[in-house]
Every structure is written in C-alpha cells, then in structure tokens.
C-alpha cells in the first residue's frame, strides 16, 4: 500500500482525518511527535497528505527535515513494526532508502530526501523503468547482506488465505465472493510452482519511489521480506500498468534470457495474485479501518483489474 504517498514532498493539501477525528486529536498527535527525544529544539509537525493506512508528518528541526510516520502493528495485514524497522535499517545501509533516525513503539522518523514522488506514468517511461528495475535487482541481491535478526517472510497466497478468514469472520459484504476468489488463488499458486527465494520489497507502487535526480530511493518497508522475485516484478507491472512489450523486456532483462512458457505463465499468475491481494487488502480495510478513505471504491477498482489479469492467466498456455 502507498503509505508514504507524497510524504517526501511538501503538500498543499489539507490533512485527511480518520472518521470521527477532528483537530483535538490531530493536536494530540502533533504533541506526541513534538515530544520525541530525537529533536534538538521545539518542532511544529506538518501533516502530509496521502497514505492508505498510516499518518505522516513533516518535521523541521535544526535546519534539517524529517518524515515522521505513525503506525502500530497491524496483525490483520501481518505488519510488524519490528520487521519494518529491520528492513528500513538494512535498506539504508544498502543505499536503497533514506536513513531511519529514530524508532519507538508506533513512531518511525526518517531523514527527508529531496526528490519527486513517481507516478505510474513516470514508471512506464522506458528510461525510468530501466532505473527502477536496476533498483529492484539491487533489493533482491543486496538486502540479505544487511538484514539482521529473524528473517521476515512475505507469501501472497498466505496473505490471501488469511484475509479470507478475516473477511468471513467480519461478515464482509464481499463474503459471498470468497469461494470463487480463493479457488482462483489456489490455481494461481499452483501455476507459480517452486520458487527462487529473494528478498523483496513487496509493495512496488510508484508512490514508493522517489527520484532524486542521480539516484532513486525506495521507501515503505512494512511488507519487506523474503519472497519470490516474481512478486516484485508482477507487482511492479500491475501497479504501473506496464505494456506487454515492457513486461517481456522486464522478464528478459531480469533473467538474462527471454522467458519460456512456464516462466511467463508463472509471472502472469503472480501478477494476478498481486492484484487480488490488493483488492482483498482493501476489503479488510473496509471492515477495520477508521481512516477517511473510500475503500469500497478502491476494492472495486482492484477487483476489476484482477478480473482482467485472471482472464489473461486463463488465456496463457499451460507449461
């Protein structure tokens, strides 16, 4: 999910308040941020627009700028902040992300980096896509050398099964669709087959990429963990609406050879699973989140995209 969308850019938009939240609670959050021990002087946090599941603030302190993110563990989405902290520190050490300068329960403080938040249109430019793929390959190859502690893991099909259980228990309006969707997920998992294990970012939205000119930064590591590299590749393709020609280039460049029928089918399956996961993530948010976000519309958007990907998968020849 895009949890830092526009967070590294100053925003002229008003803050988006969770349902029932007004200025008193906003002031309480700002007071909490202002009381963090990492500041060298008095600060005045500025709310940042964007973010589908966290609150973000810009803070200026002693001539420097920082991004503060507020967010607790989210068991419903298998988000553990200790994993995010480990991934964020590893990514900074690997030169992939801005430094994490302070962490305490529910609060992360990152160095602000100058740059432009990418859009899907940016990512679809061939020159930018090449830069993004290079960054993704560095994540896959370099992160294991820097990650410390218990290894985080992300497996989309586990997430889908977990979401289905939550949606049934929560009497989701989408409960009647779950048997069909989970049957599709089972077929997709079978098509992916055995995997090569790499360290993935697992949330490659354009809004998680910052173009600082000579380099790209990758932010938001709450879903970071070991996974099939096909998930990042499929996630990148689906989130940014890459063309068929670009997808062929993506797989050929990443693998160093053109994809065979089995590799292509596995990629299409993982791409569809990525979209189904985004839709079911939104379904869970519908019944659990208090943020003022139109999750019903977001669910519908991603279900439509999943159905198109599912049709494409059904049209792929079996390996």
Describe the protein in words.
This protein has 10 helices and 10 strands. It is of the alpha+beta class. The strands form 3 sheets. The protein has a 5-stranded antiparallel sheet with strand order 1-2-3-5-4, with helices on one face. The radius of gyration is 19 Å and the shape is globular. It starts with 22 loop residues before the first helix and ends in a 5-residue tail after the last helix. 40% of the residues are buried. Residues 1-24 have low confidence and may be disordered.
Unreliable sequence segments: 1-24
Mean pLDDT, to the nearest integer, reads: 90
Give the strand line-up of the largest sheet: 1-2-3-5-4
Distance between the termini: 32 Å
Task: Describe, in short, the structure shown.
The protein has helices at residues 23-34, 81-93, 120-123, 126-142, 156-169, 178-192, 229-239, 244-255, 261-288, 295-314; strands spanning 46-48, 55-61, 64-70, 100-104, 107-111, 116-117, 198-200, 209-211, 216-218, 225-227. By secondary structure, it is an alpha+beta fold.
SSE blueprint:
Blueprint: H1 23-34, E1 46-48, E2 55-61, E3 64-70, H2 81-93, E4 100-104, E5 107-111, E6 116-117, H3 120-123, H4 126-142, H5 156-169, H6 178-192, E7 198-200, E8 209-211, E9 216-218, E10 225-227, H7 229-239, H8 244-255, H9 261-288, H10 295-314
Antiparallel strand pairs: 1-2, 2-3, 3-5, 4-5, 6-8, 7-10, 8-9
Helix pairs in contact: 5-6, 5-9, 6-9, 7-9, 9-10
């Amino acid at each position: 999910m895009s949890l830092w969308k526009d967070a590294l850019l100053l925003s002229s938009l008003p803050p988006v308040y969770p349902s029932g939240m007004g200025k008193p609670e906003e002031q309480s959050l700002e007071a909490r941020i202002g009381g963090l021990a990492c500041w060298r002087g008095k600060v005045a946090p500025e709310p940042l627009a964007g973010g589908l599941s966290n609150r973000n603030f810009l803070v200026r302190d002693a001539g420097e700028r920082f991004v503060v993110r507020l967010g607790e563990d989210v068991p419903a989405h298998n988000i553990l902040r200790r994993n995010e902290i480990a991934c964020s520190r590893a990514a900074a050490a690997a030169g992939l992300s801005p430094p994490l300068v302070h962490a305490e329960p529910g609060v992360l403080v990152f160095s602000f980096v100058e740059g432009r938040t990418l859009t899907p249109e940016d990512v679809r430019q061939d020159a930018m896509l090449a830069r993004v793929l290079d960054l993704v390959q560095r994540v896959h190859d370099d992160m294991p050398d820097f990650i410390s502690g218990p290894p985080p893991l992300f497996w989309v099909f586990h997430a889908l099964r977990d979401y289905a259980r939550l949606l049934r228990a929560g009497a989701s309006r989408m409960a009647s669709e779950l048997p069909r969707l989970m049957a599709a997920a089972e077929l997709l998992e079978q098509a992916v087959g055995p995997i090569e294990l790499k360290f993935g970012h697992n949330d490659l939205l354009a809004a998680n990429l910052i173009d600082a000119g000579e380099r790209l930064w990758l932010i938001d590591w709450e879903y970071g963990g070991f996974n099939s590299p096909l998930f990042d590749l499929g996630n990148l393709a689906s989130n940014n609406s890459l063309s068929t020609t670009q997808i062929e280039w993506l797989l050929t460049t990443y693998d160093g050879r053109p994809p065979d029928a089995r590799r292509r089918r596995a990629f299409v399956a993982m791409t569809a699973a990525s979209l189904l996961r985004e839709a079911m993530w939104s379904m869970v948010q519908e019944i659990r989140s208090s943020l003022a976000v139109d999750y019903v519309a977001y669910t519908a958007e991603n279900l439509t995209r999943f159905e198109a990907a599912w049709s494409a998968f059904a049209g792929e020849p079996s390996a």
